[in-house]
Automatic annotation (TrEMBL):
Domain annotation Histone deacetylase: ranges: 19-290
Claim: Hydrolase is one of the keywords in the record: yes
Gene3D superfamilies: Histone deacetylase domain
Annotated TM spans: none
Family the entry assigns: Belongs to the histone deacetylase family.
Keyword Hydrolase attached: yes
Keywords from the UniProt entry: Hydrolase
Protein name: Histone deacetylase
Amino acid sequence: MLPLVYHPLYVAKDVPPTHRFPMDKYRATAQQLVDDGVVGSLDDYHAPILAPESWLTLVHDADYVAGVLGQTLDEATQRKIGFKVTKFIEHRTRHSVAGTVLAARLALEHGVAGNLAGGSHHAMPEGGAGFCVFNDVGVAGRLLLDEGSLGKILIVDLDVHQGDGTAKIFADEPRAFTFSLHCEKNWPRRKVPSDLDIGLEEGLGDEAYMRVLADTLPDLIAQEKPDLVFYNAGVDPHRDDRLGLLDLSDRGLAKREAFVTETVKRAAVPLCVVMGGGYSRDVTALAKRHALAFAEVARAI
């Protein structure tokens, strides 16, 4: 089995197709990789468990975690998240968190792995936001650091939105370095400083974007010498994304995914890829974009 993680419960079936968040993209991306011949069948993915409460409280306040698990969050908190927190949403996000934990462990074993969900980088210790309930990279990173599996992690967040929740979770953690490359004038308006933030101007295209990334990532890996890289491969920098404001093409995204994978592999550092954001109405096109990063995982084995 390729070290790719997926679970049917990544799709919360009570979120309607008209919702701003394209929930079906998880199923569609898993199927796209099958259709492309990257994965043999939907049965060939590794399946995560339901993340236990003890994992979630490593980075989130206990009262908030209890509110999600018991579906007792107040209306204001649920509006900030962007979902009504039902049992389906609870199970979706707990499987997604456990999927990133499993993918991180598979990356340590195989050199590279991916979770066909995750990248919930707006979830902070005190609560969720921006369609993010629990911060999967935050949980996975803290868990592996605390159990001694890792000495240092590097988080490379290329979602179009700044990774404020992840930055806050690891703000006082010297064993973690957070790097966010995002559209400066996009949401969140009030950003929590990462260890390294690069805010890009609106409308930036493929060549300029890749120059910034190429000038930053290799040196950053050499400087930090991480034991594991978490890569948030959000595809919302694409020119057709509803929430993006950058101008990357399909070809530009493909170059980005190949560059990140090859750069981390060349440095002999394990790589854990998570899906991140993507909000195009055309779920088929969106799934093809998300599949690019996971196809690179398969090629790197």
